[in-house]
Amino acid sequence: MAMPSYATTLDRIWYVTFRVICCLIFAFLIIPIIVIMPLSFNSEPYFTYPMPGFSLRWYGDFFSSPQWLLGLQNSIIVGVFATLVATVLGTLAALGLNRAEYAGKSTILAVLISPIIVPIVITAAGMFYFYAKVGLTGTLAGLVFAHATIGVPFVVITVSATLAGFDYNLIRAGASLGGDPLRVFFKITLPLILPGVVAGALFAFITSWDELVIAIFLASTEEHTLPRRMWSGIRELLSPTIMAVATMLILTSIGLMIVMELLRRRSERLRGITP
Amino acid sequence: MKGILRVSAAVLAGAALAGLQAPSAVLAQDTVTVASWGGAYSASQREAYYKPAAKEIDMTVLEDEWGGTLSEIRVQVETGEYKWHVIDGESGTAMAGCDEGLLAELDWEMLGGMDRFFPGAALDCSVGTISWATIYSYDGDAYSGDNVPTTIADFFDLEAFPGKRGLYANSPAASLEMALIADGVAADDVYTYLLENEEEGLDRAFAKLETIKDEVIWWDAGSMAPQLLADGEVAMTTAWNGRIYNAIVKEGKNFVIVWDGQIIDYDHWVIPAGHPEFDLGMKFIEYASRPEVMARQSQYISYGPTTAEAGALINPDILQHLPTAAANLANALWVDTVWWADREEELTERFQVWRSQ
Amino acid sequence: MVATTGSHDVMRTADGVPLKIKLRRAERMRKVWAIALVAPLFLFLVVGFILPIISLLALSVEDPDLTSGFPRTAEVFQEWDGEGFPSPEAMATFAEELSVAERGQFGRAAKRLNYDISGFKSMVKKTARQSEQLALLPLDQIHDGFIKIDKDWGDPAYWYAIKNASSYYTDYYLLWSLDLQRDQEREIVGVSPDRAIYVDVLLRTIEISFAVTLLCFLLGLPIAYLLATLPTRISNLLLILVLLPFWTSLLVRTTSWLVLLQNEGLINDLALWLGLWNEPQELIRNRFGVYVAMVHILLPFMVLPMYSVMKTINPWHMRAAASLGAPGWKAFLKVYFPQCMPGVAAGTLLVFILSLGYYITPALVGGPGDQMVSYWIVQNMGQTANWGLGAALSCVLLLLTLVMFFIYNRFVGVDRLKVN
């Protein structure tokens, strides 16, 4: 927004000050994330600048440590399966929620959303006790199950958002042209809501990928995920290997964020909302 | 209900993974899972017990790490889903777990009777595996010449030795006793004094701790203590002696262990109550308690054995760094497990309230 | 069903069924389908999420230690009115059950009784060791027998503590989580000051959440406004600076602050170099560190909803106000800000709700005086294995969160919850 011609001197000072304040806030947001990445390439195990030299040794440490690699493997397995479960169930539910009005719908919606509202420590403590009863603690299946429950609300929310602008006449048209419901779903509904489904899946994945508290309660050493391994590491010894892991996690986040942004813009274009 | 849940849980999550899980290796021998503390400590157990067990008693030992809390055992006993055959736990956990029926009583005939072990190392549900000490340590580069800390009182003397102090966050055990010794109670008399003047004695210990509270940085994992010293975050810290010894020997740090007013304690082997494979657990414990087997561990970490027979087999060079070496015992206190078992929860609660105020 | 067959004013479909009925049928089918689509997820959440939480919360009103270990004692003590001492028969029942109790049974009961009166645990154990002779005593000597083992049995408070633990359902842990207990008259009174902590912790949790929310609002407002008023091309670029932290793991961000704020960390180094202070300052393990890290982590949750509302506000409103002579700040407050309220409400409530349940960040960058309710839930569920108290604290935290969520739902609407 450019300065209008009738701005006073005071307005101009305020205008500049405001911009400076905003720059500082942006710096506050981004610097902590930027600053630790170079430290993972430090040749010495210190966390200060200037760095004495450049080295890949901490990445070498990571990729030669069976424990970190097991963590990586567990994180991927749990993330992928939890995402699958959450996406399928969440998409179906979002379709159901938007299909008709019925009594108790808002209560049902509140229940479906509740995993992101209930403090994670309570969720984890409940699962710790209850999953043990059904033999799910100390297994990857237990973590998949748990992570799927907390990933589901994101799928419901994103798919519902896509469905908000959804033209149901398209389904009716499909049906009237003789398509059976399954065919209509795969040929018409799914392609149209796909951006929402993929966005929800990405959210579900990142939720599982970053999740720590449930892993603290449920996972024994064999099931340690990357964040869980990191948590032990941070509390014991803040090593540069942890900076290397953090850097890789940040890069993953950047990748997911880019995919997400592209999706969002695509879906806005599709729905004719040009920003 | 349980059945339905089990089924639905299995269908929804288990089935999804079924194809993915690697088939567990076919093991002809006995297999036990032992939970312990991880890090250098687990490494020493691996060398001394787990690896040789395969050859010597035809037993495969799988390792797990645990947090040392009774909750982890309780949830297994109450649900009957056992993850561990044998657990390496602190004496307080062993004692409380035994009282609460969470640990099985051991087969002492198999272990050759309680008298083989040092006093306090043989309890109904547990048998000592190592002796270790809570000591305090400082960085040799920070203090030199005549002005170096030598007594436990120096740890509490902020005027003579200014700087931050490291203390264990999770339990008041050892810190309370150290505070009393520093306040003038002779090490040998600490528990008799506490039994006779319980309320006053505890108030006195807390008051002594209060004098350094503002300068305390709390550590809650064994390896944090040497790390705090190395980073210069604290001037001195209490620590488990093996961790400091490791930093000195393996990492070449110039740390100094002060052998005064240290609190000596045991770690115990325990078996969760009601374990269907109790016999396998006992077989492992029996093996690990043989003098020649137990004596191996101190080659890898500076913790002492719990039987005199094993002590006799240890190389004197190693022996001098152990908490139980005669030269280190001048003003040491052996922890009174029974005293603690009756008070651990209430004192931990009081300690945590005090810490958070 | 008002449609009658044969009348001509009823619209019919091709197969002769009145349209109204056909429509109603179709509507019903749609509902059935809708419910059928939601059902799998609903069941999944009930089993994987709701039941675990209910079973946890249930622990807060159960007191099984005495009732399962000493069922007959529990029964007779429940009948006792709590005045003076229980009857000799009740004492004899207790002695008898003590003498046959397995180690674990009286161990758990002793632990539970020790919550009420410290030192009770060792007393029960001592008594249990001599309970065989005790159980053989005639009724008129039984109380003296108890007193002979430990003189504290002459104090009615100990007997009352047994009564207090003798009912399977209890408000004991819920009261404890609010620093309360019942005295011998069943009146609710406060616990002794050296045990009172949970009200403080609760207030601290609210205080931290409130402060974090306020700080997020103060920092979030300017940048949300800037983003909403800049040309889209630039604002989309700047938005990345908000989205990247949003997408980055909480643990990673907390770790960064740990690295930045520690004694030999970057901030201290920089400040020393600039001469801002002369020796390293304590920036973590205190409230300051908690605020910095939590605000950083939650700021995107404040900015994004505000931004999405502000984007829809016509900037000409501000200009109109300005052209009518209102100074910039006044135009902002009177014209612009009221229109942002939906976004502000969504952002502040969301940040507040999320703050309430924080555990990891305060645990890593806070000191012992900065830990919130979640920390004590973890402590009691894990460290001390006091599941009843851990569950009771969970009830308190959950209730607080749900109240805030209810307000959110009322003013913002759960269907407005957006994540992108």
Automatic annotation (TrEMBL), chain A:
Q: Which spans are transmembrane here?
A: 12-41, 76-97, 109-132, 144-171, 192-218, 238-263
The UniProt keyword set, sorted, is:
Cell inner membrane, Cell membrane, Membrane, Transmembrane, Transmembrane helix, Transport
Q: Per UniProt, what is the membrane topology?
A: Multi-pass membrane protein
GO biological process: what's one of them? Answer: transmembrane transport
Q: Which GO terms describe its cellular component?
A: plasma membrane
What residue stretches are annotated with the ABC transmembrane type-1 domain? 72-260
Q: Which family does it belong to?
A: Belongs to the binding-protein-dependent transport system permease family.
| Name assigned to this protein | Permease protein
Specify the species.
Answer: Aplysina aerophoba bacterial symbiont clone pAPKS18
Task: Cite the source lineage.
Answer: Bacteria, environmental samples
